[in-house]
């Protein structure tokens, strides 16, 4: 294996490891929304957040060195560009998880089942985890076969968010009881919807890496 290939493989494996850390972040934070306060999960999220930050710095540095020292061909250059472009989205996804952990620590009681059902929170979280699992697998396999599902689920999440916002406004109009909790739930759902946008961005970058064209050009 050429030195260039070996170094590129190392960067890709480091990126995959970072993606898997973020996957655990999303899994634990969405679980917190179901069960409420859990010291072990909150500590794990905080600990992983620091690891994610370290991975981000290391991979960024390695990408810069790769471009400076090596002479990558088109495919290799696309891979490095893709990795550089997905790092901010990965870091922001981990940030969302940490913010949810902070919420669970401050408000230990889980949301009532009726509130979850009326806002579609469970479906939103399920779709989000499915989306992220699909991009991790697509990156690991160097394939675009599962990416269409990501874009379909993102539209579903957008629809859930719009309906959740409407439902919470109706709930606030019906009763002022637990208004803080309802507003907090809307803020969390908003963050999860934004997380879906970050995952969609990652999917678009993977498509570019594999196919060599941007998503907006694929039908042109």
Notes on the protein architecture:
With 220 residues, the chain is an all-alpha fold. It has one domain (3-217): Up-down Bundle (Methane Monooxygenase Hydroxylase, Chain G, domain 1). Helix content is 85%, strand content 0%. The longest helix is centred in the first third of the chain and has 33 residues, at 3-35.
What's the layout of helices and strands?
Elements: H1 3-35, H2 39-69, H3 74-106, H4 113-119, H5 121-141, H6 147-174, H7 179-211
Distance between the termini: 37 Å
CATH class: Mainly Alpha
Instruction: Provide the succession of SSEs.
Output: HHHHHHH
Proportion of beta-strand residues: under 5%
Query: Helical amount among residues, as a percent range?
Result: over 70%
Shape summary: elongated
CATH superfamily: Phosphate transport system protein phou homolog 2, domain 2
CATH architecture: Up-down Bundle
Which stretches are poorly predicted, pLDDT < 50 over at least 5 residues? none
Number of strands: 0
CATH topology: Methane Monooxygenase Hydroxylase, Chain G, domain 1
Number of domains: 1
Radius of gyration equals 19 Å
What is the residue-averaged pLDDT? 91
Describe the largest sheet. Answer: none
Structural class: mainly alpha
Question: In a nutshell, what does this entry contain?
Answer:
The protein is mainly alpha-helical and 220 residues long.
């Amino acid at each position: 294996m050429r030195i260039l290939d070996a170094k590129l493989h190392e960067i890709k494996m480091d990126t995959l490891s970072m993606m898997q850390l973020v996957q655990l972040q999303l899994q634990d934070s969405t679980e917190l929304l179901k069960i409420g306060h859990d010291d072990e999960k909150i500590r794990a999220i905080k600990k992983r957040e620091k690891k994610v930050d370290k991975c981000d710095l290391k991979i960024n540095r390695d990408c810069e060195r790769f471009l400076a020292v090596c002479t990558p061909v088109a495919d290799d250059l696309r891979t490095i560009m893709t990795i550089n472009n997905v790092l901010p989205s990965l870091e922001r996804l981990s940030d969302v998880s940490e913010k949810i952990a902070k919420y669970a620590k401050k408000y230990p009681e889980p949301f009532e089942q009726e509130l979850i059902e009326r806002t579609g929170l469970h479906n939103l979280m399920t779709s989000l985890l499915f989306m992220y699992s699909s991009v991790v697998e697509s990156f690991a396999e160097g394939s675009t076969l599962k990416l269409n599902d990501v874009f379909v689920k993102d539209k579903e999440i957008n629809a859930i968010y719009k309906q959740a916002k409407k439902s919470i406004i109706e709930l606030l109009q019906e009763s002022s009881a637990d208004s803080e909790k309802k507003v907090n739930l809307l803020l969390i759902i908003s963050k999860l919807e934004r997380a879906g946008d970050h995952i969609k961005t990652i999917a678009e970058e993977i498509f570019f890496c594999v196919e060599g064209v941007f998503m907006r050009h694929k039908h042109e």
